[in-house]
Amino acid sequence: MDLLERQKDFFYSGVTRPYQYRKRALTLLKGTIKNNESKIMKALQRDLNKSDFEAFTTEIGLVYTEIDFVLKHLKKWMKPKRVKTPMTHVGSVSRIYPDPFGVALIISPWNYPFQLAMTPLVGAIAGGNTAVIKPSELTPTVSKLIKEIIDQTFIEDYIAVELGGVETSQKLLDQAFDYIFFTGSVPVGKIVMEKASQNLTPITLELGGKSPVIVHDDASLKLAAKRIAWGKFTNAGQTCVAPDYLFVQENVKEQFLTYLKEAIIHLYGERPLDNPDYGKIVSDKHFQRLVGYLNNGEVCYGGTVDEEKHKIEPTILTDVDRHQAIMHEEIFGPILPVLTYSHLDEAIDYIRRQPKPLSFYLFSETAHIQNTVLEQISFGGGCINDTLYHLGSPHLPFGGIGESGIGSYRGKFSFETFTHQKSVLKQSSRLDLPFRYPNKKNRMKWARRVMK
């Protein structure tokens, strides 16, 4: 019997449904992660050169926060919700039951390989499902450790990890899972969606795209520069919600660029390539792709690369031709194109003509500017006067729109993603409204009275 069939049998046994089972599973998962925390940090350092601080704050700590939040609220979320019943249904009671889908397939990416495998898993467990995780082959140390952690914690019939490359993903996608949760690139997301359509499998796609930033002239420029540098160059820019390109109002461009350079030096030093805590590019293929972007504009700062270490300095590009590849492909690296605008409408118009971004960031201190931009630009989520921080709140749904994704998760939204809202009407046997039957006289009159 293959893994999918065994997990389906385990799910249909009903073991995963009770609150106590889900609570125990989440508690065990957190305990095993804590016991392996130093190993996780070492694995992230090996695959992506993440510092212990970055590994904890952007990967491990976020999983702890997610588990704690879910455990605090799960019992309440699981309760059937009673809703109103119309006059036409007098005598009946209506409820919505959060019903687990069954066996979930979680395909996770390489840029935050631990967190983006575990956070969806928390939602799948909370929802009462079983799950198969397919981590990325580009971060082999972390992927192997994820399998070790899951194998230490759960039986394979409940939670399993499948290692391998593209062939493994294709093999899994050919099977009839009950739910698919994919995090990765837009091109691969389209393939996953096509595969899911063959079995009409419900799906969440957490993709990416080009997340823009607008810096208006009323912004706190020095703080904006610091927060943009942090958001852009964390994990060497390999973050799906990292600022991808920046619009700065032309009358403050030079001042802002000065602050941005100062911020990079402050955060990473005069020689970032020698900074042991500065991240590396995950593979040679991605490194060479990013190097090719360096001639898509004028290097205003940075631009130095280390091919042996797969490192690229935090780089600012100006005088960027909007027809170049860097303005049409997700950068996913430490290169930031800077464009200018005279009037806000110019920046808004450009952004609206592009695919809807996963994230958007605005730096402005004026309420009407903030409201104007929020009303006129469609995006998955974002921040005003900050970058990335919306990602860390379990109270906010995280997800894209259009080409940047389908569906959302985090906190309660993860629970809702991994459950079907099953509608149930419980009818009384003591009362039977006669007008609904075809042999009732004057049934049209009665129907008009209650359905007007």
UniProtKB/TrEMBL annotation:
Keyword Repeat belongs to the record: no
NAD as UniProt keyword: yes
Keywords: NAD, Oxidoreductase
One GO CC term, this protein: cytoplasm
CDD domains: ALDH_YwdH-P39616
Active site as annotated: 206, 240
Highest rank taxon of the organism: Bacteria
InterPro entries xref list: Ald_DH/histidinol_DH (IPR016161), Ald_DH_C (IPR016163), Ald_DH_CS_CYS (IPR016160), Ald_DH_CS_GLU (IPR029510), Ald_DH_N (IPR016162), Aldehyde_DH_dom (IPR015590), Aldehyde_DH_NAD(P) (IPR012394)
BP terms from Gene Ontology: aldehyde metabolic process
Residues annotated as domain Aldehyde dehydrogenase: 18-424
A Pfam family annotated for this UniProt entry: Aldedh
Gene Ontology molecular functions: aldehyde dehydrogenase (NAD+) activity
Family per similarity comment: Belongs to the aldehyde dehydrogenase family.
Protein name, as recorded: Aldehyde dehydrogenase
Annotated organism of origin: Amphibacillus xylanus (strain ATCC 51415 / DSM 6626 / JCM 7361 / LMG 17667 / NBRC 15112 / Ep01)
